[in-house]
Write a structure and sequence with these properties.
One of its GO terms (molecular function) is cis-regulatory region sequence-specific DNA binding. One of its GO terms (cellular component) is nucleus. Helices cover 16% and strands 30% of the residues. It is α+β, with helices and mostly antiparallel strands. It has a single domain, classed as Sandwich (Jelly Rolls), CATH 2.60.120.650. The longest helix has 8 residues. The relative contact order is 0.25.
Length: 206
């Protein structure tokens, strides 16, 4: 009913309490603090990559988003996970029990500060679950390109562009809370905004 047509929020389809217990700040630092993680800039089309120790990211870079900062100057930890080093953690995650024929799942794990997020972009279908914190989503169907600057953060877009949009041009939106999963169909435009310091994981169906 939703696979190819529109997003949907799923509640109560999995129990990830064991995974959540492994994703506290103390547990993650104890397990991965000395490991290197790859950060990406939070802009739409070109991504700069920076490798830092995970502990440095958590203790020095995991801060609220600066409204004046451009996406190219904002570093974000999501997606570039080493599946050998992080594999034991991902093995504890229970993905949503739904599949699209001809696709295979791939995980992307992220941790980000309040006010951070990624600006509008699109890719294939998938699921996104919030483990800690809250994440606000803005979505447009494939045939409706949003108004945005590719180097503007979602927070800046929300302050500068969103209030000027007529009701008919506003996106679909929702706020995910821990344990809730959003399914987004293929090629839907979406931008995200972490309302709190958040831990989240996506299952991309490629």
């Amino acid at each position: 009913r939703f696979a190819f047509s529109r997003p949907v929020i799923l509640r109560g389809v999995t129990d990830n309490s064991a995974f959540r217990a492994l994703c506290t700040r103390d547990k993650l630092l104890a397990s991965f603090g000395a490991r290197s993680v790859r950060l990406s800039t939070a802009n739409t089309y070109s991504y700069r990559k920076v490798d830092v120790p995970f502990r440095e990211y958590v203790e020095q870079l995991l801060k609220p988003q600066d409204l004046a900062k451009l996406g190219s100057d904002t570093l974000y930890f999501f997606g570039d996970n080493n599946f050998t080093e992080w594999g034991p953690l991902f093995q504890q995650y229970v993905p949503p029990p739904f599949h699209i024929p001809g696709t295979s799942p791939a995980y992307s794990f992220g941790i980000a500060g309040s006010g951070s997020g990624v600006p509008f972009h699109w890719h294939g279908p998938g699921f996104s679950e919030v483990i800690f914190g809250r994440k606000r989503w803005f979505l447009y169907p494939p045939d409706k390109t949003p108004h945005f600057h590719p180097n503007e953060t979602t927070l800046a877009w929300l302050h500068h562009t969103y209030p000027t949009l007529p009701p008919a041009e506003r996106p679909l939106e929702c706020t995910l809370r821990p344990g809730e999963v959003l399914y987004f169909p293929d090629r839907w435009w979406h931008a995200t905004l972490n309302l709190d310091t958040s831990v989240f994981i996506s299952t991309f169906l490629g």
